[in-house]
Design a protein that fits this description.
Structural class: alpha+beta
Mean pLDDT: 77
Strand content: 15-25%
Number of domains: 2
Number of helices: 8
Low-confidence stretches: 1-38, 40-58, 61-155
Oligomer: single chain
Number of strands: 24
Distance between the termini: 11 Å
CATH architecture of the largest domain: Alpha-Beta Complex
CATH superfamily of the largest domain: Cysteine proteinases
Helix content: 10-25%
CATH class of the largest domain: Alpha Beta
Shape: elongated
Largest sheet: 7 strands, mixed
CATH topology of the largest domain: Cathepsin B, Chain A
C-alpha cells in the first residue's frame, strides 16, 4: 500500500498529507528575478526572436515565449483571454509537444521492463498485442548495476506495419464517453479519457474529472478551463487519479482524503503533425490527447466546420486551439466528401469528445487530416503503474513543467536535496526532457550538510553515477535504478542530473509563479541547485525564485 500521508521533512511529504493541497504554479510567463547569478531568467513580456533564440537573461516558458500576462503551456502561446470559457470550449494552452519530438512510447513496469499490452493488468499503455505480427514492442532497460541505460527500442515498433484504418470501438479499447456539461473541463476529460484508454482492454477504470479539476495545484475554477500541463502536474505528483465512483462529476463537490488509484510515471509528447507517430501511439500505447479550434460549445451547436450528417469536422485557419479531444483511431480512406470544406485529400482521425453520446456518432466524430490544429499538440500516457510501485515520492514541483531555465547552452546540471525518512530505499528518479534527443546522467550525492556554500558544493561533487541514457522525445520519464539503494534514517541526499538537450538553451524544467493569480508556488518546500558545469552551484529557490522539476521515488 502506498503511503503518502507521512512525508514530512522535505516539504513534499507535508503536502501529501493533504493530498498535495494547492501549491500552484503559473501557466504564464514571469521573471524569476535575476539576483546576480549567471542563470538565465525572463522578464515579463520578453519575446523570443524569430530565429528561436532568446536574449540572455531569460527564463523561458517551455519551448515558446509569450507576452506578459498571457497564459501559456509548455509549447504553444496563448493569449490572456484564452482559457476555457464557461460554455465548455477551452484554450488548451497552445497544447504543443513541449519542445521535442518523440517516438511512439516507452512504458515500463516497476521492474524497468516494457509492457505495451494492457492485458492482464497495468501496462505502460496501449493494449495491442503485437506478437501476431511477429514483433516485440517492449521497451528496454540495459546496462550494468552502475549504469542503467533506459531507451525505447524504436526498431521494435518501426517494424510494425500499421493498417490503413483502426478504430478502438472495434477492438474493445473504446473508453467511456463523458459529458462536461456547461463546465470548462474538456482538458480534464481528454486527459483522463486518454489515460483510461491506455489501460484497455486489460483493465477498465473510470477516473474522476471533478478531482482532477478541483484538487490540482492551480487556482482555476471548473468554469475557467485548463490545459494538459495541469493534467501532467496533477498525475505526476500523485495527486490522482481517483475513481469516478469516489468523486462523481458535476456536483460542485470534491471530497478531501482520496488517494490515487494508479501512479502515472511517464507521459510522452508526440511530434507536431507527425501522423505516423500518432497512429503508432494509438495502436500500441493508448489514445492521444490532442487539440482543436472550435466555435461549438456543446452537442447542440452548429458550425460551418462541422457536418452533422457525417459527424465530420475540419477547420482550416489561424485560430488557436481551444478544445481538447482524444484520438482513438483513423481511416486513411475516409472521404473528403464527408466534410463541409473543399479538401485536398481523404483521411481522418477518429476522436472522442466530452459532450456526451448525443454528439456525433454516440460521442465520436471524424477530424480531417487537413484540419489546421489536430495533431499539432499531442500527448500520450505511456507509464501507468500500480500504486504499490513505490512507497514515497520526494518532490517540490507540484505544478510541474511551467518554464525552463539554463545558461544559454544545451548542457546544464540540476539537483534537488531531500531528507530520508526511516527505512527508505532509493528506487528511481524522474524528470522532464524538454526537447528531443535529450541525453542524461543520473547521480546520487549522500550525507549532505545543512549548510550551503562551498561545503554543499563539495558534497554535490562527491556523487555516484546511477544511470545514463538518451531520451528520443520530450516528456516526463521515471528512471528505475538497477538496484535499490538503502538510505540512512534522516539522511539528507540529493538526486543530480546532467542533461544535454541539443538546440535548447534552457534545458531544465522548472515551476515558478508568474504573478497572474493562477498559481501560488511554495518555494519553502524544496532545496534545488543549478549549475552550468556540475561544480559551481546556485540555490534556485533563493536566486531564481523557482523549483526544479526533479523527483525521487523510494521503497520501504
Amino acid at each position: 500500500m502506498v503511503v503518502v500521508s507521512d512525508i514530512v521533512r522535505n516539504g513534499i511529504r507535508k503536502k501529501a498529507a493533504a493530498l498535495f493541497l494547492a501549491v500552484s504554479l503559473s501557466l504564464g510567463t514571469a521573471g524569476c528575478g535575476q539576483a546576480n547569478n549567471p542563470a538565465e531568467t525572463q522578464t515579463p513580456g520578453r519575446i523570443q526572436g524569430p530565429d528561436g533564440t532568446q536574449d540572455t537573461g531569460s527564463i523561458q516558458d517551455p519551448v515558446g515565449t509569450q507576452d506578459s500576462g498571457g497564459v501559456q503551456g509548455p509549447g504553444g502561446t496563448l493569449d490572456s483571454g484564452g482559457i476555457q470559457n464557461p460554455g465548455g470550449t477551452q484554450d488548451s494552452g497552445g497544447i504543443q509537444n513541449p519542445g521535442g519530438t518523440q517516438d511512439s512510447g516507452s512504458g515500463r513496469n516497476p521492474d524497468g521492463t516494457g509492457n505495451p499490452s494492457g492485458a492482464g493488468g497495468f501496462a505502460a499503455a496501449g493494449g495491442v498485442d503485437t506478437s501476431e505480427n511477429g514483433e516485440n514492442a517492449q521497451g528496454s532497460s540495459t546496462g550494468s548495476s552502475t549504469t542503467g541505460v533506459y531507451q525505447w527500442n524504436r526498431l521494435d515498433t518501426a517494424n510494425i506495419k500499421l493498417p490503413s484504418a483502426y478504430d478502438y470501438r472495434k477492438t474493445g479499447r473504446a473508453p467511456q464517453i463523458g459529458n462536461q456539461g456547461s463546465l470548462g473541463t474538456c482538458w480534464a476529460f481528454a486527459s483522463l479519457t486518454a489515460l483510461e484508454s491506455s489501460l484497455l482492454p486489460g483493465k477498465s477504470m473510470t477516473f474522476a474529472v471533478d478531482h482532477m479539476s478541483m484538487h490540482n495545484s492551480f487556482l482555476l475554477g471548473q468554469d475557467e478551463g485548463g490545459e494538459y500541463t495541469m493534467s501532467m502536474a496533477y498525475l505526476l505528483a500523485w495527486q490522482g487519479p481517483v475513481l469516478e465512483s469516489q468523486d462523481p462529476y458535476g456536483d460542485g463537490v470534491s471530497p478531501d482524503g482520496l488517494t490515487p488509484s494508479v501512479h502515472v510515471q511517464e507521459i510522452q509528447v508526440l511530434p507536431s503533425k507527425d501522423y505516423e507517430a500518432i497512429k503508432r501511439a494509438v495502436y500500441l500505447r493508448g489514445g492521444v490527447q490532442s487539440s482543436l479550434y472550435t466555435s461549438m460549445r456543446d452537442y447542440q451547436s452548429q458550425s460551418v466546420y462541422y457536418n452533422r450528417e457525417t459527424n465530420s469536422y475540419c477547420y482550416i485557419g489561424n485560430e488557436k486551439p481551444n478544445h481538447d479531444s482524444v484520438i482513438v483511431g483513423w481511416d486513411d480512406n475516409y472521404s473528403r466528401e464527408n466534410f463541409n470544406l473543399d479538401l485536398a485529400g481523404d483521411g481522418a482521425f477518429i476522436c472522442t469528445n466530452s459532450w456526451g453520446e448525443d454528439f456525433g456518432d454516440q460521442g465520436y466524430f471524424y477530424v480531417s487530416y487537413f484540419d489546421s490544429n489536430i495533431g499539432v499538440h499531442n500527448i500520450v500516457y505511456t507509464g501507468v503503474e500500480p500504486v504499490d510501485n513505490y512507497d514515497y515520492i520526494h518532490q517540490s514541483d507540484l505544478c510541474g513543467w511551467v518554464g525552463q531555465i539554463g545558461y544559454g547552452q544545451e548542457e546544464a546540471w540540476f539537483a534537488n536535496a531531500y531528507r530520508a525518512d526511516k527505512g527508505e530505499n532509493l528506487a528511481a528518479a524522474g524528470f522532464y526532457a524538454t526537447d528531443k534527443n535529450t541525453e542524461y546522467e543520473l547521480y546520487l550525492a549522500r550525507n549532505l550538510p545543512d549548510a550551503g556554500g562551498g561545503e554543499m558544493e563539495r558534497a554535490l561533487d562527491r556523487r555516484m553515477l546511477l544511470a545514463k541514457g538518451r531520451l528520443d522525445n520530450a516528456g516526463y520519464y521515471t528512471i528505475p535504478l538497477d538496484k535499490k539503494i538503502p538510505l540512512e534514517d534522516n539522511e539528507k541526499f540529493a538526486i543530480i542530473v546532467k542533461i544535454i538537450t541539443p538546440g535548447t538553451v534552457h534545458p531544465v524544467a522548472i515551476e515558478y509563479d508568474a504573478g497572474d493569480g493562477i498559481a501560488q508556488v511554495d518555494l519553502t518546500d524544496g532545496e534545488g541547485y543549478l549549475s552550468h558545469d556540475g561544480k559551481v552551484w546556485e540555490h534556485v529557490e533563493e536566486t531564481q525564485s523557482c523549483n526544479l522539476c526533479l523527483k525521487a521515488y523510494t521503497k520501504k
